[in-house]
Amino acid sequence: MVFHKINLTNFEYQKRLYVIAIIGNAEDQRRLSNLYDHLKNII
Q1: How far, in Å, CA of 30 to CA of 8, rounded?
Q2: What tens digit of pLDDT does each residue of 1-43 get?
Q3: Exposure class string for 1-38: b at 16+ Cβ within 10 A, else e
Q4: Which residues are CB-neighbours of 29 under 8 A, at least 6 positions away?
Q5: Which residues contact residue 22 at a Cβ distance below 8 angstroms, ignoring those fewer than 6 apart?
Q6: Dist CA 40 CA 43 (whole Å)
Q7: Which domain of life is it from (predicted)?
Q8: What are phi and psi for residue 27, nearest 5 degrees?
Q9: Number of H helices, E strands in the chain
Q10: Is-contact 22 29, C-beta < 8 A?
């Protein structure tokens, strides 16, 4: 029970870090978006 709670907390923490990183670097976000569109066109 405690183990699952720790995992969930860690997941939420990682998710926040990820969101902060994306908001903090709009240039990279644009690059990732372009890459995603490019891959979508290939597939």
Answers
A1: 29
A2: 555 566 667 788 888 888 777 766 767 778 878 888 888 887 6
A3: eeeeeeeeeeeeeeeeeeeeeeeeeeeeeeeeeeeeee
A4: 22
A5: 28, 29
A6: 5
A7: Bacteria
A8: -65, -45
A9: 2, 0
A10: yes
Residue that the structure tokens 């998710």 belong to: 15
Q: Rounded CA gap, 40 and 9, in Å?
A: 33
Rounded Cα distance, 36 and 30, in Å:
10
Q: How distant is the alpha carbon of residue 3 from its chain centre?
A: 23
Q: Which residues contact 28 (CB under 8 A, 6 or more apart)?
A: 22
